[in-house]
Specification:
307 residues; mainly alpha; two-stranded parallel ribbon; 53% helix; 4% strand; 3-methyladenine DNA glycosylase
Length: 307
């Protein structure tokens, strides 16, 4: 039997070091969420950017909180232990050093970690598919009247024009959390029938929504994932969301965004090029997430062997 690599190897960080990292992280998070916080204070909404907060349940305070990641020890300052000492799943030793209690974290989130490892590794093993052209958003309003509209934005091609685009192009959506919002008339037009149970089998790394979901998976790993990984995933999801709406049937010109007209050859070529670029960018983040869950898995294995 091959012995896994050491799990959650310990790195000790002195106060000046980790305080600087925490401050830089908070400043970056504040910059990323400034526009959203200003709109929220004014009671305004944004059809593109609010998706990350509404659908994924992301909170500015959550993004602002820096975590060093599993296996990192934060030495105390002159004033005492790091504030992490009061946060869930952290433990403090007799000298005031704080670290993530990986055993306690896995006791609560072990099933999630195991599922994410399976999903992320399976997704990363596949070739990106870039032939969907963002038609999932069109399928969500196909022959729906206004009852199922998810935004107040007007349809760029009108009702009849929108339906005609769906009828003229094959739909090949592999992502269940997009497919589940298809209108009844659009469901049968999809080449696949993704379900929650088949997500590990269906997910592929070219899918915009699968790559936006890296934000969701990083959030679910909570303090086990380093803070920088969370903010990188948020930035990725934010950028992908722009293309998602530019290529949608909605007219986003009022938001200062140009349409990616996927009903035209030029628009489809633009979509594919940007989709492939996002797939490459997502691959690095997915690999970093896999490293996190693999390391947690090694810890669980070693704990089971030693007990």
């Amino acid at each position: 039997m091959t012995t896994p690599a050491p799990a959650c190897a310990t790195a000790v960080r002195e106060p000046a070091d980790w305080l600087a990292s925490a401050a830089a992280h908070a400043a970056r998070a504040d910059a990323l969420t400034a526009a959203h916080r200003e709109r929220r204070a004014a009671g305004e909404r944004h059809p593109i950017e609010d998706f990350l907060y509404d659908y994924y349940g992301t909170r500015p305070a959550q993004l602002r909180r820096w975590h060093p990641g599993a296996g990192t020890v934060l030495r105390p300052t002159a004033d005492g232990p790091a504030e992490h000492a009061a946060w869930r799943w952290y433990s403090t030793d007799g000298d005031g050093a704080v670290t993530l209690d990986v055993g306690a974290f896995l006791a609560d989130r072990g099933d999630t970690v195991r599922y994410l490892r399976e999903l992320l590794v399976a997704t990363a093993s596949r070739r990106p598919f870039a032939g969907c052209f963002g038609l999932h958003e069109w399928a969500m309003v196909y022959r729906s009247g206004d009852a199922r509209r998810r935004h107040d934005l007007p349809l760029r091609l009108g009702r009849a024009g929108t339906d005609a685009v769906v009828e003229a192009h094959p739909i090949q959506c592999s992502h269940f959390d997009a497919f589940r919002f298809f209108t009844p008339d659009a469901v049968g037009r999809n080449a696949l029938t993704p379900t929650r149970q088949t997500q590990v089998v269906d997910e592929q790394p070219g899918c915009l929504h699968a790559n936006m979901d890296l934000l969701k998976w990083t959030s679910k790993l909570g303090p086990a994932a380093p803070g920088g990984l969370l903010l990188d995933s948020f930035e990725l999801a934010r950028d992908i969301r722009v293309l998602d709406m530019q290529a949608s049937p909605y007219d986003v010109s009022s938001l200062g965004e140009p349409a990616v007209a996927i009903e035209t050859p030029a628009g489809r070529a633009t979509y594919v090029a940007r989709q492939r670029a996002f797939a490459e960018r997502s691959a690095g983040l997915r690999s970093r997430l896999i490293d996190v869950v693999e390391d947690l898995g090694h810890y669980a294995w070693e704990t089971a062997v030693s007990s």
